[in-house]
Write a structure and sequence with these properties.
0% of the residues lie in helices and 49% in strands. It has 71 residues and is mainly beta.
């Protein structure tokens, strides 16, 4: 997986957005994206993009998809 993201701040919440891609650079639609150690997560759309609303802080992102190995 390749994971790119950006942060936007809005009223004490952080909007984390990004894209999950395969190692060849293709968007990975409907993969699971979550914050390690929490129940916060979402699924990428057909274009491989996602958004999560979070409180400011330091987080570790996880992306999972059946048949792919986590890096």
């Amino acid at each position: 997986f390749l994971l790119s993201s950006q942060f936007l701040f809005a009223q004490e919440l952080l909007i984390l957005s990004g894209m999950v891609k395969t190692s060849s650079g293709e968007p990975l639609a409907y993969s699971s994206v979550s914050i390690a150690g929490t129940t916060s997560g979402t699924t990428t759309n057909i274009d491989g993009t996602f958004q999560l609303k979070l409180k400011p802080g330091s987080y570790t992102l996880q992306a999972k998809y059946l048949g792919y190995q986590t890096l």
